[in-house]
């Protein structure tokens, strides 16, 4: 059916026991511990820092070998910043990153150059992610050349990767980015990321800018490539459908923090955190038959420069109580791959919330459970989670 | 046929777009220029001026330095002097041909040097950002606080005349604007994802600048610099006119204008000739620069 | 906005300081002993000692700069080598003559360029537009000192309508607008000088006006039956702030860039003073004149920026 009728690929399928593997299958590929990144906000007469955007504020999670970890959250919640931190494109203010057991950027750890080979990224904006002055195959060949591959070898690798992502190299290799469609550019971006044979691919809104049909093609391509190259994905998107389709586990972010993490089925069928539930409800509400009367989440996300005390979601949470303002709920310690945990006092038996240990059931309509006297605040609804 | 190696159908469907003739950026610029006749005409005028200046030893009818008391300030078309003579009886036509050399040199060399120095500073400032950017760009701002001709006069006036000093002054005049153009372009490019991607693939600063920044900064810098050549020619001949540029008896258009000025009542139109040469040259460079700007359509 | 104003003023201070440092350094750019440059060649030993003391030539350079700056701030720019008179007086005397030229030239250029730019925008793309645009390229390509010479040749030498150079028999100390003799002398230099900002004012007008004309709301106005004249008036009102800003900047530029034209017309302004200083290697005058002109340039840029923010609150700056 497919039209690839050429010599067997030179890039062989990575064997079961990946020679690049160091820590064994049980060792998470990437561990992020308490990562923080605050951007200074400048202003005033002398342009001094007058505050900080807490873009990523104490994020802890693990990426298991071979899995696809989806990351979802509203616009501006720090997804891209987290991606850049994981890539070490920007330094983190505090926290520890461990790659396959080796700490990054420390003595005795993995060197930055090795790390850069092992972790690659596909950027959101296919327009600005390719150098307009370079033919695309040169863009792909650039990375291997940086790592010492001879120019001719890098070029043939680039052409081979173009074929792998579904672009005929003799047709597309010499083209400039402006001569490609969005989907084709994104394929080139994926090929470029693969050129260093990475183990972890971070995809930041990699399909968000594409048409639905092209998006499906690229998603399938990603699934194929993952198996073919023995990859692990961190897949960032605000599109809940796409994340559900591609992920094994899902991490939900709100205002620079992780609010819930669990298997894709767990998150999508029995979401725990009120924010996750609201996100999923707002997705359903896209369907006119299931649209609920009141918008499930109201208001804009709070200012990340001055986040609310205690639980950051409390300004929009229908279950908020006094304890939510005074104490910040923490994520229970991660247990194993199947753990499904949420940072909410209701899901902490000792949380001090009236519903602690007895969180609302999955099927309860959210607004019906809201404490009496708290009318629905008719503010701007959350932007639809699905891009039409 | 299905690719069985992978266990699953390969979803990487081969895209079957029709073959297009692929043309790189500079190729398409050249293509556009080919049909811009106005620019081409002025380009040929520049070529002619350059050739005339280069070949002046062979095509000049007379020795540009040979004075003659008898033939002083003769009008256009007097005997063998096609364009008349100057106050020392030297042949104007020959001096105009020779004078093109210094004028072109003063037009091109300072701009070239300033592109190198200002461009480098701008790329460094733009790429590194932060305190370095601050230091470089604020220093440039100081030189922006002078009208260009005043700055040139100040520097060469203090250092004393001469062609080398004039060139140095002009170079200093052009460094700030070129630095600013390069800095703006670099800052814009630096924030784009492909530079991040290059960094993510482990490339060092130097490699990124060479492979990813320069190619994108070159076009706007080049367009701007091409416009500066005409400015440089104008200011340089202005300096010579003030006695700060080329020193006599070297033939130079600005200098000729300055000495012939005394003879304005005797032989007015001969006096205007060197200025006409400056005007035509500067106009041609401006027109070509304008055409380049359009062909390169710099949107940075 | 007030924050912007305060920051903009604050930002001008280091630039002004940089300008003074540059002017101070001019003496060191010059070949030879700076002391010699500041003194007439026949200065006596006592005078040399005195100057050495007051300028602090025996002290390190930063201290010398501080001394020099302190004196400059109190209005003491040294003494001219050529005339032995204080530089400040010489510069201020010449300044008014340059101001007259520049103001007149900017006004003339504005009235001409604004009309032409308006025409070009109105006949967008047609031959009028192309003619005007071509004219503006010619304007920036022409060596203005040569243009001055050509005007002298035509109007003074050939037709004998206007005086060629100078400011007239009454001398150069003061210019009176009521003096027809002096006005006649000013005509050619003003016309020549107006050619410098002509091109840029024209282009600014053209782009600002055609931007307004291309707006959707103008099309709507037209559809509603608004007369062409009213449309034009609307476009002019919208384009004026940008054009006036350019005009202000060009005024500062002309003040500093008048040297060639004043030399051609022997117009006794700062440019002419500068030229004399160059010829006689009168470094104190050179230094002082350039300092004053550059500071005027900085001040006009600042003023234009501030006025623009005050007049047009749409311009929001970070
Ligand atoms: N370089 C920066 N300097 C200052 N603030 C920044 C910077 N980068 C991001 N931010 C801020 O950090 C917050 C998180 O931004 P980020 O781009 O990570 O969000 P995101 O979740 O990726 O959003 P989106 O879905 O819109 O891409 C935002 O408030 C943003 O304004
Ligand atoms: S901690 Fe309180 S405010 Fe936060 S999500 Fe849970 S119930 Fe809502
Ligand atoms: Mg993002």
UniProtKB/TrEMBL annotation, chain B:
It comes from the Bacteria. InterPro entries: BP-dependent_transpt_permease, MetI-like, MetI-like_sf, OppC_N. The keyword Transport applies. It is found in: Cell membrane. Residues 100-289 form the ABC transmembrane type-1 domain. It is a multi-pass membrane protein. The keyword Electron transport does not apply. Keywords: Cell membrane, Membrane, Transmembrane, Transmembrane helix, Transport. Its main location: membrane. The chain crosses the membrane at residues 37-60, 104-130, 142-164, 221-244, 264-285. Pfam families: BPD_transp_1, OppC_N. GO terms for cellular component: plasma membrane. GO terms for biological process: transmembrane transport. Belongs to the binding-protein-dependent transport system permease family. This is ABC transporter permease.
UniProtKB/TrEMBL annotation, chain C:
Pfam families: BPD_transp_1 (PF00528), BPD_transp_1_N (PF19300). Its main location: membrane. It comes from the Bacteria. Residues 95-308 form the ABC transmembrane type-1 domain. It is a multi-pass membrane protein. Signal peptide: none annotated. The keyword Transmembrane helix applies. The chain crosses the membrane at residues 9-30, 99-123, 144-162, 182-201, 242-265, 285-307. InterPro entries: BPD_transp_1_N, MetI-like, MetI-like_sf. Belongs to the binding-protein-dependent transport system permease family. This is ABC transporter permease. It comes from Prosthecodimorpha hirschii. The lineage of its organism: Bacteria, Pseudomonadati, Pseudomonadota, Alphaproteobacteria, Hyphomicrobiales.
């Amino acid at each position: 059916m497919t039209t690839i009728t050429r010599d067997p690929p030179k890039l062989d399928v990575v064997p079961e026991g990946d020679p690049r593997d160091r820590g064994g299958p049980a060792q998470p590929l990437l561990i992020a511990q308490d990562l923080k990144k605050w951007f200074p906000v400048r202003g005033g007469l002398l342009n001094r820092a007058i505050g900080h955007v807490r873009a990523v504020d104490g994020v802890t999670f693990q990426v298991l070998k071979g899995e696809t970890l989806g990351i979802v959250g509203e616009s501006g919640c720090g997804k891209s910043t987290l991606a850049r931190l994981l890539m070490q494109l920007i330094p983190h203010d505090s926290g520890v990153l461990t790659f396959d057991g080796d700490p990054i950027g420390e003595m005795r750890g993995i060197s930055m150059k090795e790390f850069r080979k092992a972790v690659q990224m596909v950027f959101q904006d296919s327009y600005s992610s390719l150098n307009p002055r370079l033919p695309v195959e040169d863009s792909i060949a650039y990375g291997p050349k940086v790592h010492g591959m001879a120019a001719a070898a890098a070029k043939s690798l680039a052409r081979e990767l173009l074929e792998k992502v579904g672009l005929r190299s003799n047709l597309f290799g010499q083209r400039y980015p402006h001569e490609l469609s969005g989907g084709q550019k994104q394929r080139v971006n994926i090929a470029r990321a693969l050129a260093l044979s990475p183990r972890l691919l971070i995809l930041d809104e990699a399909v968000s800018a594409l048409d639905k049909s092209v998006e499906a093609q690229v998603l399938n391509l990603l699934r194929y490539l993952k198996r073919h190259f023995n990859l692990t994905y961190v897949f960032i998107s605000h599109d809940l459908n796409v994340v559900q389709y591609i992920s094994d586990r899902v991490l939900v972010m709100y205002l620079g923090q992780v609010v819930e993490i669990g298997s894709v089925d767990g998150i999508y069928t029995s979401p725990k955190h009120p924010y996750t539930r609201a996100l999923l409800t707002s997705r359903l509400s896209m369907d006119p038959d299931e649209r609920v009367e009141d918008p499930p989440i109201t208001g804009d996300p709070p200012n990340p420069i001055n986040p609310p005390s205690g639980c950051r979601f409390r300004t929009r949470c229908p279950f908020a109580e006094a304890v939510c303002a005074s104490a910040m709920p923490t994520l229970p310690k991660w247990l194993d791959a199947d753990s499904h945990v949420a940072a909410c006092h209701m899901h902490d038996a000792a949380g001090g919330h009236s519903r602690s240990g007895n969180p609302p059931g999955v099927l309860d309509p959210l607004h019906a459970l809201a404490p009496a006297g708290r009318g629905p605040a008719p503010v701007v609804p959350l932007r639809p989670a699905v891009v039409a | 046929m299905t690719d069985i190696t992978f266990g699953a159908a390969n979803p990487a469907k081969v895209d079957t777009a029709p073959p297009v003739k692929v043309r790189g950026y500079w190729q398409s610029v050249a293509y556009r220029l080919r049909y811009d006749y106005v620019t081409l005409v002025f380009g040929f005028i520049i070529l002619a001026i350059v050739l005339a200046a280069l070949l002046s030893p062979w095509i000049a009818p007379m020795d540009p330095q040979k004075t003659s008391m008898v033939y002083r300030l003769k009008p256009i078309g007097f005997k063998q002097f096609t364009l008349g003579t100057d106050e020392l009886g030297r042949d104007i036509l020959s001096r105009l041909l020779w004078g093109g050399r210094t004028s072109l040199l003063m037009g091109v060399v300072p701009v070239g040097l300033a592109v190198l120095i200002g461009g480098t500073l701008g790329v460094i400032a733009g790429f590194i950002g932060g305190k370095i950017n601050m230091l470089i760009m604020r220093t440039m701002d100081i030189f922006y606080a002078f009208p260009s001709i005043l700055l040139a006069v100040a520097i060469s006036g203090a250092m004393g005349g001469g062609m080398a000093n004039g060139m140095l002054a002009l170079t200093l005049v052009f460094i700030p604007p070129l630095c600013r153009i390069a800095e703006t372009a670099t800052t814009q490019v630096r924030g784009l994802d492909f530079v991040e991607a290059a960094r993510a693939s482990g490339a060092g600063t130097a490699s990124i600048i060479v492979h990813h920044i320069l190619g994108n900064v070159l076009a706007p810098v080049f367009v701007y610099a091409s416009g500066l050549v005409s400015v440089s020619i104008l200011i340089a001949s202005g300096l010579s006119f003030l006695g700060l540029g080329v020193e006599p008896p070297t033939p130079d258009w600005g200098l000729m204008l300055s000495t012939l000025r005394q003879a304005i009542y005797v032989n007015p139109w001969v006096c205007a000739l060197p200025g006409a040469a400056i005007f035509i040259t500067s106009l041609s460079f401006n027109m070509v620069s304008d055409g380049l700007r359009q062909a390169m359509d710099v949107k940075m | 906005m007030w924050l912007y104003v305060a920051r903009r003023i604050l930002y001008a201070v280091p630039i002004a300081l940089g300008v003074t440092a540059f002017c101070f350094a001019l003496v060191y750019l010059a070949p030879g002993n700076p002391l010699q440059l500041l003194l007439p060649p026949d200065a006596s030993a006592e005078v040399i000692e005195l100057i050495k003391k007051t300028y602090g030539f025996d002290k390190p350079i930063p201290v010398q700069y501080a001394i020099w700056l302190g004196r400059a701030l109190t209005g003491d720019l040294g003494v001219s080598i050529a005339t032995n008179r204080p530089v400040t007086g010489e510069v201020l005397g010449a300044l008014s003559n340059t101001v007259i030229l520049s103001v007149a030239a900017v006004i003339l250029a504005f009235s001409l360029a604004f009309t032409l730019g308006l025409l070009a925008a109105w006949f967008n793309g047609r031959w009028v537009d192309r003619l005007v645009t071509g004219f503006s390229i010619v304007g920036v390509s022409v060596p203005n000192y040569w243009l001055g010479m050509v005007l002298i040749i035509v109007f003074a030498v050939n037709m004998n309508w206007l005086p060629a150079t100078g400011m007239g028999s009454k001398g150069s100390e003061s210019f009176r607008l009521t003096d027809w003799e002096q006005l006649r002398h000013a005509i050619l230099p003003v016309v020549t000088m107006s050619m410098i900002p002509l091109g840029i004012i024209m282009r600014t007008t053209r782009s600002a006006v055609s931007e307004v004309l291309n707006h959707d709301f103008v099309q709507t106005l037209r559809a509603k039956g608004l007369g062409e004249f009213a449309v034009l008036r609307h476009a002019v009102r919208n384009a004026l702030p940008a054009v006036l800003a350019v005009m202000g900047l060009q005024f500062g530029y002309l003040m500093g860039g008048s040297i060639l034209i004043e030399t051609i017309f022997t117009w006794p302004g700062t440019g002419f003073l500068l030229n004399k200083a160059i010829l006689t290697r009168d470094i104190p005058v050179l230094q002082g004149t350039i300092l004053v002109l550059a500071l005027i340039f900085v001040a006009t840029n600042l003023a234009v920026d501030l006025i623009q923010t005050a007049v047009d609150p749409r311009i929001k700056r970070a």
